């Protein structure tokens, strides 16, 4: 074999064939730059595919072809000076846990690298401490055989004050690829071309760790070829085209517990199940936090997992506890925080005020006194850096540990006065918006405003309902703050506005007890005695919803006597109707019948049309309970006639019809008039479902189940009974006897 290098032999063969570099490039389809670099020793010998193309273009005979191939193989095998180091990866983790689908995707993309088309590029992104580097290195280990020509790792220092310049990244790669220092171009673009030319001929894997932004890595990415690049970053690097992206989330609870046990390496009482689960939860299932916690425990033989959990349970000290040696969770978060703009830092800190798990852009705008579009832009920047997570299409949330870091920054960087002002502005906005939304459901308030007010457009009952549901934790927390601060008018105002919405949300029973306990206490401190009376009635309704019957009856009668003393006939009617509801549920039926009769009389006098209609419904249900079927049916049908003759808002009319239809159906079913019961229950089911009233829907299903079972339609009966039981199984108002009977009937149907 010739003692020339591969590049020297290639030049001799090209010149012997009378070809310029450009001519050989055109004949072989190998780039002129690549041929030039090979001949001058700036690039290693090419792979087999490129060798074949060059030999064919040079029209080499068998001997010359074999010699050129042998020189290339010898040079690639490392027999010559300048061979690059392979597998220059950080040390892998022996206790690596999880990331199965992510690794499968990375390995699959690596195995797809065929040289036909652009080399695959995968961006692994996520918040600080989520394990991006560990995942990338693990994938590289699994791809070692796929990329035999080298695996090259570069820490881009993207979170440093001065990330590694791209020109330096290219220099390091070129040296690792075997290019002599003197042959490395000075210009960044030329260096990038050199890297792409070399990578086009080799099966190499680049791990570009901790990228600052797109501009830093774009020139480094391989072009067409059989290589691959894995880029890790706290940012999504959304500006990179034609790349795959993998968003890393914290580990699952099971994976977190497994990782802790592996780090502690102790199956004794130091790492028992419940305590391991608790430590994992307190670490937010974040790999960095889990490793630090596990290492602290492993290095302290006298500690148990319980000791560690107790230390981490203090929110004010948790971040400090999650630090060992020169590694800490707080320090990792601080690197992301440091690169934020002043406005983004302010938003990040103040989002710690948000009381709910997730939130939308309007609350961010309130906290920073900016417009909605600016707030959305800043939120997206926080997401881009991994300091926030998207929750659905338009909501955001903190990781638990990052929320603690934001709270710490808030305390350290803003005065008590500034913090208090921001928190009150948020609470005021939440209560104003909740009050506005609640007014859409008031039956006698007239036409609600045509447009929403402020940052949230609430222009329909549907929009109001949606906002009140999704922001429940936030406006309820704001209500607590207002109550604690003695803002009684604000608290009572929300209770007044939201009462009729409360009736649409049966499954919020415990929340309504708190809401109306606060509004009742606030109203009692205001000079308006009628307002105090109304809120007493609201609270009586709320405690009835959680099954506190004696308390509810006592409250209703207290309200009745207060209304009587004030000459407030309408409120007196509402109070005695509430007492009737309690007595009926408690099976004090004669007392309930008297209460409904009295409520009807008072409501008719006061023009309280809704209470007037409700007293008919209550009386019908009570008569049915007494076995006075015909009288009950007359009461129910009287309501249907009265609805059309009284000025009742459409929503209340719909709700009343649904209640009457259910009452008719249950009464007919109790009288074993099965087909008539089905005829009444079928439209009742549609109406209740349309309103979203869980309690009504559940009971209509039970009636239909009973009736179909009695008529021998077992399949339909089974379907309705199952649905009713599922809807009502946690309802405290539905009697245990009703549920037991439904379950027994379902069991009797068999399989």
Automatic annotation (TrEMBL):
Gene3D superfamilies: lambda repressor-like DNA-binding domains (1.10.260.40), P-loop containing nucleotide triphosphate hydrolases (3.40.50.300), Tetratricopeptide repeat domain (1.25.40.10), Winged helix-like DNA-binding domain superfamily/Winged helix DNA-binding domain (1.10.10.10). Residues 10-66 form the HTH cro/C1-type domain. It holds the Pfam family HTH_31. InterPro entries: AAA_22, Cro/C1-type_HTH, Lambda_DNA-bd_dom_sf, P-loop_NTPase, TPR-like_helical_dom_sf, WH-like_DNA-bd_sf. PROSITE patterns: HTH_CROC1. SUPFAM superfamilies: lambda repressor-like DNA-binding domains, P-loop containing nucleoside triphosphate hydrolases, TPR-like. PANTHER family: HTH-TYPE TRANSCRIPTIONAL REGULATOR RV0890C-RELATED, REGULATOR-RELATED. This is Helix-turn-helix domain-containing protein. The lineage of its organism: Bacteria, Bacillati, Actinomycetota, Actinomycetes, Streptosporangiales.
